[in-house]
Amino acid sequence: MSEPKEGDVIAVWVSCGAASAAAAILTCRQYGNLCDIRLLNNPIKEEHEDNQRFVRDLSEYLGRDIEIVINPDWPECSIFDVFENRRFMSSPYGAPCTGELKKKARQFWESNNHADWHVMGFTYDEKERHENFTLTERENVLPILIDRMMTKDDCGKMMNAIGLKMSAAYDLGMPNANCIGCVKATSATYWNLIRRISPERFNHLCEVSRDIGAKLVRWNGERMFLDELPEHAKGQDLKSMDLDCGFFCEEKWK
């Protein structure tokens, strides 16, 4: 793959996690004096409110504006609007909130803006995901973190080293900075964590999932509704969960 040249536009897609922040910082360091770098963030209403504080801190650290990108079909950027409209919450192949609020938001931006290159938060432990994305979507993705063999853990250490405090979502025990109550999760451990840290959100998800008929949690080998989950139930360890929900997520649902 060729390298960015002077004057090229690099679109850096920044979520609220350490990996995309590290990718943004390294891209600015490497190409900031050569290329036009556009930092882009996709806010979701149901994410932890501290996520946008992290985005502002990253913007201040870099001395660059971070643009907001949304899908105009969903101006409130709410997962619940998508669920109620689509009458669908999740499947083994993805979730409609990711497709409508993340992927289509990115595609809308791309249809109205030019970018010679894209940077996503693919880490060294996500090489396969990066390769799949470049095969199915586009080839012009700079493997900023992969080239440096940086893992998710390395990115977290980088944030600590430069003094950027991650979203409070992590302090609450969440394995990611996604929505409080990510419908791609099936772990009983995860959902009981959400029940403890945000009972109002948990109850809302119980109601919506019941209405739609979505059994979001698995316990003892059985799919069940959230309101059927015993409070003592445990499932997959949170640290082993893969709930990435970025601009690069691949969906196979229709």
The major sheet is characterized as: 4 strands, parallel
Total helix count? 10
Apparent shape: globular
Average residue-wise pLDDT: 92
Report the structural category.
Answer: alpha/beta
Radius of gyration: 18 Å
What fraction of residues sit in β-strands? 5-15%
Please give the number of β-strands.
6
Could you explain how this protein is built, in words?
With 254 residues, this protein is an alpha/beta fold. Helices cover 41% and strands 9% of the residues. It has helices at 18-31, 51-62, 79-86, 96-112, 127-136, 144-147, 152-162, 168-171, 188-197, 199-212; strands at 9-14, 36-41, 66-68, 117-119, 217-219, 222-224. Strands 3-2-1-4 form a four-stranded parallel beta sheet. Strands 5-6 form a two-stranded antiparallel ribbon.
